[in-house]
């Protein structure tokens, strides 16, 4: 498989995870989410789509940089496996927060997601430092998202 194909597959896979998660998000943003008490620092709803689309593209490029080093290398297989786990956790956060409408459980899950992103960055760095650096905006955004998630949870405990 050539590198162009690997790049397309990597980006498409990550964006597909985002699209799947957005199914739960889209059905709740204008209904349930709009009824929640949110902190003043909560961004407007329209910002999330462009930010997440960009972050999923960066994840895909990072995965490509690792994958192109060859699946024959154990470090590549491990890194992509850890990356796959973090993508699953990313999807699960949307399901828990928006689908199940459970900010408390989602907060616990986003902490686990954050740790999985860190593990992915470490595993990617063993193969490609550039791949690890591409995930820095993602872990920064998820750090912010975790604080936002926590703030929403606390503000809406009934």
Topology:
Blueprint: H1 3-29, H2 48-67, H3 74-99, H4 103-125, H5 129-134, H6 136-155
Overview of the molecule:
This protein has 158 residues and is mainly α. It contains six helices and no strands. Helix 1 (3-29) packs antiparallel against helix 2 (48-67), helix 3 (74-99) packs antiparallel against helix 4 and helix 4 (103-125) runs antiparallel to helix 6. The mean pLDDT is 97.
Name the helicity range: over 70%
Number of beta-strand segments: 0
CATH class group: Mainly Alpha
Question: Spans with pLDDT under 50 lasting ≥5 residues?
Answer: none
Which descriptors would you attach to this protein?
158 residues, Ferritin, 77% helix
Describe the structure concisely.
The chain is mainly α and 158 residues long. The protein contains six helices and no strands.
